[in-house]
TrEMBL record:
Protein name: Alpha-ribazole phosphatase
GO cellular component, one term: cytoplasm
PANTHER family: BROAD-SPECIFICITY PHOSPHATASE YOR283W-RELATED, HISTIDINE PHOSPHATASE FAMILY PROTEIN-RELATED
Entry-linked InterPro entries: His_Pase_superF_clade-1 (IPR013078), His_PPase_superfam (IPR029033), PGM_Phosphatase (IPR050275)
GO molecular-function term, one example from the UniProt record: phosphatase activity
Organism listed in the record: Psychrobacter phenylpyruvicus
Matching Pfam families: His_Phos_1
Length: 243
């Protein structure tokens, strides 16, 4: 039996010009996950990431902490990259809600008069996500949600094949919230034609470096756990983040 452990990357640089890099908190979160797996002697046979910087750097910080504890059982400490594990283009999704959001000035103009600009920004992004998931504007996007979901399901198949080839019992995958949510929704909505909004609701709850476990029995994946993040609580809730 093989378990695929999907870890959302550590906190990225939300609100910065370059979102695709870990914040200091994000690096700490990934380090804590590595320490936690080492201390609990969680055996990891292989690591996989997408090609995004925040995903690969999360794997690096995890490995540095995991190997330091002399707990590593990895055949190779070099993660395999599967590009289909990359997140959707959140900038494109946001801009398609309002073309003025293509510039920082346009975004600031939309939130500046709000009592709490950050809250208003989150509300606008929520509106953009609902529009993307609705299926009513698919032709507007560089990658519609159905196209993204198809790509993610292809990534899952590649992971299953890779795990079998490596004879790996535990594969840790550093990816992003949208990917994890789409895979989880597909497992929860088997037989349903519309997992999109389920994926959206799941995505909103996923914590940075939270781990979702999927068990492979034959060729049929099953959800084992969702969004595990106990490794972040040794300092209370101060290390828990969603963005």
């Amino acid at each position: 039996m093989t378990t695929l452990l999907f870890a959302r990357h550590g906190q990225a640089s939300f609100g910065q010009k370059n979102y695709d890099k870990l914040s200091s908190l994000g690096a700490q979160q990934a380090t804590l996950l590595g320490q936690h797996y080492a201390h609990t002697q969680r055996k990891i046979d292989a690591i996989v990431t997408g090609s995004l910087v925040r995903q690969q750097d999360s794997a690096t910080h995890f490995l540095n902490a995991y190997n330091t504890q002399d707990a590593s059982t990895l055949t190779s400490s070099t993660p395999k990259i599967i590009e289909e594990l990359n997140e959707f283009n959140h900038k494109d999704v946001f801009i398609k809600l309002d073309p003025s959001f293509a510039t920082e000035a346009g975004i600031m103009n939309a939130v500046a008069q709000a009592p709490v600009p950050k809250v208003r920004l989150a509300e606008l992004f929520n509106e953009a996500m609902i529009r993307w998931h609705s299926g009513q504007h698919d032709e507007d996007y560089l990658e519609s949600w159905p196209q993204f979901n198809l790509r993610v399901q292809q990534a899952l198949q590649k992971l299953m094949t890779y795990a079998e080839q490596q004879q790996a019992k535990n594969v840790l995958i550093f990816t992003s919230g949208g990917v994890i949510a789409a895979i989880t929704a597909s497992l929860l909505n088997q037989g349903s034609d519309s997992p999109s909004m389920t994926a959206y609701q799941i995505n909103r709850s996923l914590i940075n470096t939270g781990v979702t476990s999927i068990v492979l029995r034959g060729d049929r994946p099953r959800l084992l756990s969702l969004n595990e993040h106990t490794h972040l609580y040794h300092q209370g809730q101060s290390l828990v983040s969603w963005h």
